[in-house]
DNA sequence: TCGTAAGTTTCCATATAATTCAACTTTTTG
DNA sequence: CAAAAAGTTGAATTATATGGAAACTTACGA
């Protein structure tokens, strides 16, 4: 299973690279400064939850946590793990995308 | 590093996952989805680092951590916080974007 | 093939994210 | 308005991510 997954992982990576990366030339610099504001992430959770017409308690049930936890995630100024983000938006049937870009090329992570 | 013109018969990512992991919604599949994302995230760090011609040690110096830590991030031994992701890609002068999409609407988080 | 550089792993400590519970405040609604 | 529902907060706990040190393995150039 491990070997299998590893093999698949490499295939996936190669696919990704061949498709999206191609070759990248020389030096480059970041276009604009990027800053992720955690409040916005919390706002996103809230927005999507409202969109789905769920209370914090109901969303909590879907995920398996108390409403207080949802509240904290929504108004959170703290750091969050990827796992938590995925868990929440999955329950909300929303798709999360992470991408990394250098220069013109964009590498989709998920 | 990036292999060009590598003609191989391979399944699409979704095909692979459906065939070898199980259908969407199963525990196995969900777990794999998460692991896949994490693994690919590590691969992205590695790819961009290589692109910048940096060793793990050099990247570590930029961020202020040991090379072992970079190794761990690239090999995804753990879950990762947003802060860590941002820190790494910032050092690599790469731009990270998170976005959430549900149905037709897409909400940019950053 | 030897030596060095690069990368990995293990053990461990510390910081902090995730979470609950219960009391509290705010909002909704009958 | 008063009750109920929804949301917030703080204190405490648990789980785990971050990180260093050092030994180890792998890659690689002379």
UniProtKB/TrEMBL annotation, chains A, B:
Domain HTH cro/C1-type as annotated: residue spans: 45-99
UniProt KW keywords: DNA-binding
Annotated Gene Ontology cellular component terms: cytosol
Cross-referenced Pfam families: HTH_3 (PF01381)
CDD domains assigned to the protein according to its UniProt record, in alphabetical order: HTH_XRE
Residues that span the membrane, as ranges: none
SUPFAM superfamilies: lambda repressor-like DNA-binding domains
Molecular-function annotations in GO: DNA binding; DNA-binding transcription factor activity
Name under which the protein is recorded: Helix-turn-helix transcriptional regulator
Organism: Subsaximicrobium wynnwilliamsii
